[in-house]
Amino acid sequence: MNNAGVLRDKSFAKMTLDDFRRVIDVHLMGSVTCxxxxxxxxxxxxHGRVVMTTSSSGLYxxxxxxxTALQKWRS
Length: 75
Prior knowledge:
By secondary structure, the protein is mostly helical. The chain is 56% helix and 0% strand.
């Protein structure tokens, strides 16, 4: 089960590129890294499940969580 997240609650104008990178690294690459770690074993077993969870920010949005909402929408 993949469930990773980090908040950077700031308006778009106040977010730095490092803030954006951190959110993408945790939300997207965290899930990729965890899935990659078990992928070969699941293929070898010919069985396995990957479950991705998310937050409601991708559907409803919250102040200062634009990049979180965007990343959840893409996931």
